[in-house]
């Protein structure tokens, strides 16, 4: 099993476990997290790119991976990814560079799957 499949499987397993044992506040937060990325005044693709930039600036590799997978499923192109990565770099500064590297490596891996 590849790293992407492991990530997806672990995320799904643990989210299910958290929702089974979490209280109403946990469930509300997870529900809000899902709802905010649905189509609205901004389309889902734009919202996922925003989530990706925020995740890079906050330096959360799990979140970066998740948003790259979501963006890819919504048709984000390499050029769009690179522009989003550059926004994160400018906003977050050089501390973002290691996450930028891993994001590009993941994107390379995903494009190798196509």
Give the tally of β-strands: 0
Mean pLDDT: 96
Helical residue percent? over 70%
Backbone shape: globular
Radius of gyration (Å): 15 Å
Mind explaining what this structure looks like?
The chain is an all-alpha fold and 114 residues long. The protein contains 6 helices and no strands. Helix 3 (44-58) packs across helix 5, helix 4 runs parallel beside helix 6 (97-113) and helix 5 (78-92) packs antiparallel against helix 6. The longest helix is centred in the N-terminal third of the chain and has 19 residues, at 3-21. The model has no long low-confidence stretch (mean pLDDT 96).
Layout: helices, strands, pairs:
Elements: H1 3-21, H2 24-36, H3 44-58, H4 61-73, H5 78-92, H6 97-113
Helix pairs in contact: 3-4, 3-5, 4-6, 5-6
Features:
globular, 81% helix, 114 residues, single chain
Could you give a quick summary of the protein structure above?
The chain has 6 helices and no strands. It is mainly α.
